[in-house]
Amino acid sequence: MKKNLLIGIGLSVLIAISVLFSCTKENKPQTSTASKTEVSDDVKKNIASLGFSTDDVHRQGDNYLVEGDILLTPANLAEASTSPTLRIADVEQYRTTNLVKNLPRTITVSVSNLPTVYLNAATAAVARYNALNLTLKFQMVSSGGAIQIIGFNQGPSGGFITLGSSGFPTSSGNPYSQIQMNTNPQAYGSNPNLGYVTSVIQHEMGHCIGFRHTDYMNRAFSCGGARDNEGSAGIGAINIPGTPTKADAGSWMLACSNGGDRTFNANDQIALNYLY
C-alpha cells in the first residue's frame, strides 16, 4: 500500500493525500550488495506462475514485495496455484490459493511498539470485521497475536511512499502473521487520521485472510493511468450469485485508495460471507 506524493500535492486542498497500493521504486546506486536485493529471472517466473505481477518486484530479506503491499515468502513461492477466483460484477473479488481454515475460528491481533493511533485503528478494524458476524472473527490481545502489527520507518522513493504491507495465508490454513505499517511522517502525516489508518489496516487484514486486490485485472480502475493487469496466470474465476453487473468503485480491497476512510461495501460483504 503506497501514497503517490505527486498526485497528493494537487488534491490536498480538497481531500487527504491520495494513496496508491502500488510498488515503491528503488532508485539506489549500484553497489557490491546488489545481489542481495536483485530478483532473479527464475524467481520472477515463479511469481508469475502463481498469478502475481512481476512489475516492480522488490526483495525484502528472504521475502518478495509484489503488487505494492503483498509479501510473498519462500513457502508461497514453493506452492502451486490451483485457486479459483471470486468474481463480482465488472470489478472482481479475488482470493488466493490458501484461505484460513478450521472455521469457526477467532484470530488474535496485537500491535507492538507503535503510537496509540495504530492501536486504536487496529481495534476499529477488528470491530468492522466482527460486525459482519462471519465464522472468522478477530480479537485484540496485548501481545503475541496470530497477526502482529509492527512498524517500520521508510521515506518516499520515486514519488511514492509505502504505507503498509502484508501477505497471504499459509498452506496449513493460518493467516499471514504480520502487518507492517509505516511510521514515517510522510506516510500519514504528523497527526494520523484514525479512519484513514483503520482503512489501511483493514485492507492489509484482507490480504492476511486471502483476498487480493478487487481491481486485480486492471489497477487503473482505482489508480488511474494506463491499464495495468496484475496477472492472473493459472487462476480461474467463480461468479458470486446475486451481485450487480455494474462497476463497483467502493471496495475495501481496491488497489488504490481515495485517501479517505474506505470500509466494506455491499459486494465486499457478499464475498466475505461467501468465504467465511
TrEMBL record:
One of its GO terms (molecular function) is metallopeptidase activity. InterPro entries: MetalloPept_cat_dom_sf (IPR024079), Peptidase_M10/M27/M57 (IPR024653). One of its GO terms (biological process) is proteolysis. Keywords: Hydrolase, Protease. The keyword Protease applies. It holds the Pfam family Peptidase_M57. Signal peptide: none annotated. This is Protease. It comes from Mucilaginibacter celer. The lineage of its organism: Bacteria, Pseudomonadati, Bacteroidota, Sphingobacteriia, Sphingobacteriales.
